[in-house]
Write a structure and sequence with these properties.
three-stranded antiparallel beta sheet; 114 residues; mainly beta
């Protein structure tokens, strides 16, 4: 099943990362599953870690990026998570082409960017 392959490949890609760099937003985990509410769409939950210091430096979004570098979806994070680290947030109904075999999930913070 194409959805199952995408889920496995997405998790493999997300979980194979480099060392954690202090100050940057890091994706620690992701779960992707076919959306029960919308055919052809996926629900995605992403766990992010960042040393939020306040409104001037916090993880402010994560993105789902396709193989060609196109942003397929963005989850905006509206406030710092000073006392909740790491934290998980979800996004429902993300459209991913049936021919796409992998996606990348990247996190952003206000100071360092992606």
């Amino acid at each position: 099943m194409a959805a199952a392959r995408l889920i496995r490949r997405c998790l493999a890609l997300v979980l194979v990362g480099g060392p954690v760099v202090a100050g940057q937003a890091d994706v620690l985990d992701a779960e992707i599953a076919p959306s029960p509410a919308e055919a052809g769409a996926f629900d995605i939950a992403v766990t992010v870690r960042h040393r939020d210091t306040g409104w001037d430096h916090y993880a402010n979004r994560w993105e789902v990026v396709g193989p060609a570098g196109d942003v397929l979806a963005t989850r905006t994070l509206l406030h710092p998570h000073l006392n909740e680290q790491p934290f998980t947030r979800g996004l429902r109904g993300v459209r991913i082409s049936p021919t796409t075999t992998w996606v990348r999930i990247r996190a952003n913070d206000l100071v360092h960017g992606m």
